[in-house]
Automatic annotation (TrEMBL):
Keyword Mitochondrion in record: yes
Gene from which the chain derives: Slc22a3
Organism: Sakesphorus luctuosus
Compartments, as annotated in UniProt: Apical cell membrane; Basolateral cell membrane; Mitochondrion membrane; Nucleus outer membrane
Transmembrane segments: 21-42, 154-171, 178-198, 204-225, 237-257, 263-282, 347-368, 374-395, 402-421, 427-450, 462-482, 488-511
Domain Major facilitator superfamily (MFS) profile residue range list: 99-516
CC annotations in GO: apical plasma membrane; basolateral plasma membrane; mitochondrial membrane; nuclear outer membrane
GO MF annotations in UniProt: monoamine transmembrane transporter activity; neurotransmitter transmembrane transporter activity; quaternary ammonium group transmembrane transporter activity
InterPro entries reported for this sequence: MFS_dom, MFS_sugar_transport-like, MFS_trans_sf, Orgcat_transp/SVOP, Sugar_transporter_CS
PROSITE patterns xrefs: MFS, SUGAR_TRANSPORT_1
GO BP terms in the entry: dopamine transport; histamine transport; monoatomic ion transport; norepinephrine transport; serotonin transport
Name recorded for this polypeptide: Solute carrier family 22 member 3
Family that this chain belongs to: Belongs to the major facilitator (TC 2.A.1) superfamily. Organic cation transporter (TC 2.A.1.19) family.
Catalyzed reactions: L-histidyl-L-proline diketopiperazine(in) = L-histidyl-L-proline diketopiperazine(out); (R)-noradrenaline(out) = (R)-noradrenaline(in); guanidine(out) = guanidine(in); agmatine(out) = agmatine(in)
NCBIfam families: 2A0119
């Protein structure tokens, strides 16, 4: 009986069928990256707001004031007398009633200047010139409540983390396409609820759920794409990252054209419902079907792939070799039980963590400080585009391991140099820091591909999801690490980033090369990679094994 890779080669390793599925599933990267970075626009700080004095609303209504007139009467005098107060986080500790004059409300307090009137911290009752421009103005996430915006992003990352564990496990047990479609439905529904959440608690709950389902769509579509192509075509795992970057580039345009944060939220959520149409055009992964002892269904899908690719399978392909490995529900112990699996798992977990922490740290450092928010964010996305193209032109020539290691090491060196460059040459600091970001972006994209290539089919989705969950942990830690260390010394975070990146670069050299090798189907296949350490890109696994699917 032929192996799966033999059947796939005859059906077409990257024909018209795979190209269509690849293009359709790649659109998930656009919606996922928009969700990932949406807080930049959903959480924009309001330009003009102030704390309303008790009774001011009634007085404003009685006097017929506009918002600008109310502010001029109640806030500007406070700022004139007390330069340190702008009326945003504190207010006059007074209460107005109907006896106050509309023409000069402060005259009610006699000859006392505004600077002599008592002040108090504002806890609620803020007024915004654009009340629905962002979640900040919608839920009063200003002043003492500003930390809640950071909480909302941490909750989203926690959702990503939960999705990596739960939906990664579910995809290995119940199927790739089923979990992908359910996740798309979940992202769309939760996104709508987030847009119309009546309070911040509901907003947080469904933002967590949207993050969980969002991670399910992204990780599952990635695994499906890499499992339906041949070993020489798994570069599609890098190409799909371009669509993630496209989402980053498109997002500022969506935000610019959307008058409210609800419109932005709906624009990045509703497209997920369109992905439900994939039920009729994207099949279940035949590799996964074979691991669940469903050879007939897998062979039927292979015949369909061959037909769409303009090929025909040989008549003797009536059955495909099924793995002799016992099919069981995956667990973390399966990833660390054997030496090679344990080495790969621990190194990949660290690589995900370091890449995410450094990437987000550099984005925040080079991020938007004044200027045009939309243009700056667009440019920051364009900077990432060369990463995928550099990988494409090198990874099939020199392999995975060397670009993976060098990108981390170059990122570390760039961070170190940036830390000690003088402040009077900002263009050079920005250039070197940008090189660091480009390098860590390359590392971030390679780890996706390497992760999927180093796990057997029975554990691939669970393994990729589990290891990538460390990415979400790095994303949670990054802002706290950056701002706490920067308070000690502005360049100290770069020193930490440098150490993390260089260590990661050295560790990934211990991983086996996977260039040109069929995807492993069993744990035994992964363990055999150790015998080809350093030569994996030049030597195929023994053909006498019957462990292919």
């Amino acid at each position: 009986m032929p192996s799966f890779d033999e059947v796939l080669k005859e059906a077409g390793e990257f024909g018209r069928f795979q190209k269509r599925v690849f293009f359709l599933l790649s659109q998930t990267g656009i919606t996922f990256s928009s969700l990932f970075a949406s807080v930049v626009f959903l959480g924009r700080a309001p330009e003009n707001f102030w704390c309303r004095i008790p009774g001011a609303a009634e007085l404003s209504k009685r006097c017929g004031w506009t918002l600008e007139e109310e502010r001029n009467f109640t806030i500007l005098p406070l700022h004139v007398e007390n330069k340190s107060s702008n009326g945003e986080c504190e207010r006059l500790d007074v209460a107005w009633d109907t006896s106050i004059s509309c023409a000069s409300p402060l005259a009610y307090y006699g000859n006392r200047s505004t600077g002599n009137l008592p002040l108090t911290t504002c806890h609620d009752n803020w007024v915004y010139e654009q009340p629905h421009s962002s979640v900040v103005s919608e839920y009063d996430l200003v002043c003492g409540n500003a930390w809640m915006l950071d909480l909302s992003q941490a909750i989203l990352n926690l959702g990503f983390l939960t999705g990596a564990f739960t939906l990664g496990y579910a995809a290995d047990r119940y199927g790739r396409i089923l979990i992908y479609l359910l996740s798309c439905l979940g992202v769309g529904l939760c996104g709508i609820i987030v847009a119309f959440a009546p309070n911040f608690t509901v907003f947080l709950i469904f933002r967590f759920l949207q993050g969980m389902f969002g991670k399910g769509t992204w990780m599952t579509c990635y695994v499906i794409v890499t499992e339906i192509v041949g070993s020489d075509q798994r570069i599609v795992g890098i190409v799909i990252q371009i669509f993630f970057t496209l989402g980053i580039i498109i997002l500022p345009g969506i935000a610019y054209l959307s008058p409210t944060w609800q419109a932005i939220q709906l624009a990045i959520s509703l497209p997920n419902f369109l992905f439900l149409l994939y039920y009729w055009v994207v099949p279940e992964s035949p590799r996964w079907l074979l691991t669940r002892k469903k050879g007939k269904k897998a062979l039927k899908i292979m015949h369909n792939i061959a037909k769409h690719n303009g090929r025909f399978l040989s008549p003797h392909y009536s059955e495909i070799t099924i793995s002799n490995e016992e099919v069981s529900n995956p667990s973390f112990l399966d990833l660390v039980r054997t030496p090679q699996m344990r080495r790969c798992t621990l190194i990949l977990m660290y690589a995900w963590f370091a890449s995410a922490l450094i990437y987000q740290g550099l984005v925040m450092r080079l991020g938007i400080v004044g200027g045009n928010l939309y243009l700056d964010f667009f440019i920051s996305g364009v900077v990432e585009l060369p990463a995928a193209f550099l990988i494409i032109v090198t990874i099939d020539r020199v392999g995975r391991r060397l670009p993976f290691a060098l990108s981390n090491i170059v990122a570390g060196i760039a961070c170190l140099i940036t830390a000690f460059l003088p402040e009077d040459i900002p263009w050079l600091k920005t250039t070197v820091a940008t090189l660091g970001r480009l390098s860590i972006t390359i590392a971030f994209e390679v780890v996706y591909l390497v992760n999927s290539e180093l796990y057997p089919t029975t554990l691939r989705n669970f393994g990729v999801s589990l290891c990538s969950s460390l990415c979400d942990l790095g994303g949670v830690i990054a802002p706290f690490l950056l701002f706490r260390l920067a308070a000690i010394w502005l360049e100290l975070p770069l020193i930490i980033f440098s150490i993390l990146a260089v260590v990661c670069g050295l560790l990934v050299l211990l991983l086996p090369e996977t260039k040109g090798i069929p995807l492993p189907e069993t744990v035994e296949d992964v363990e055999q990679l150790s015998s080809h350490f350093g030569k994996c890109g030049k030597k195929q696994r023994h053909q006498d094994t019957n462990s292919y699917i």
